[in-house]
Write a structure and sequence with these properties.
Helix content is 28%, strand content 26%. The chain is α/β, with parallel strands linked by helices and 284 residues long. Strand 12, helix 9 and strand 13 form a beta-alpha-beta unit.
Amino acid sequence: MTAVDQAHPTRVQVLRSGSGGNAIFVEVARTRLLIDVGLPLEGIVRLLAPLSLTPSDLSAVLLTHEHDDHARGAGSLSRAAGIPVLANERTLARAAPFLGGARTERFTTGIPFAVGEIQIDPFPVPHDAAEPVGFLLTAGGIRIVVAYDLGEASDPLRERLPSADLILLEANYDPRLLGVGTYPWFLKNRILGGMGHLSNDRAAEAVVRAARGGRAQTVLLIHLSDVNNLLPLARDTVRWALEREGIAASRVEAVRSNGAGPLWEATAGAVGLPATVLEDAAAP
């Protein structure tokens, strides 16, 4: 793996997260990735503009799985920018309708690989897709875990969370709101199942387990339902769980459903979000 330019900050931003489409930007020195592209090309162009970037500045796309809110724009972005789409074999096969004419590269779940300055560890997560994964990204001593669209915090995720500086974790629904909501029962059962989505309470349990070692971490809760959750509820469920355990080192924010998150930056000796950005993100 290429040595990381320590003077250049690592930057991470959730460009969009929710059922309307997902895309997460990660930058380390000269390597710039999008994790998932569940938006049309024009949407990605618009979301990259505040970062002073265009699609041609990107290095690659990583796919967690093939569902359309994660993969539908991957092919058009790849063709426009001339960059590869990386996924495991089963995801590439199922995402083929979105990837016509795109350059694709295959990775193997459980085997780390590198893209530029970033070491990537794709680990399995439980979800009703062909071969869904989360990612542990490592560069310059900074570790980032991305895990969303998963029915439970299984062992591969729990093993990776304690060492992370930044955790992007699903908090999709509140069980009480889901129970009284208007979704049909077959859909409620899918969401509640072990191959469905992660609730606020289950996300809180995973964050508490990760934080017990006392490591300072930033947690961004993502993929919130716009029907079965509320931003303050997701955020405060996790914060209260940490407070009950006497854990003060972790900082928790939630990304509004189908919205963008705050910019997270890390340089040698300084990791996290500016206080003013945290305050803005926390507003209900």
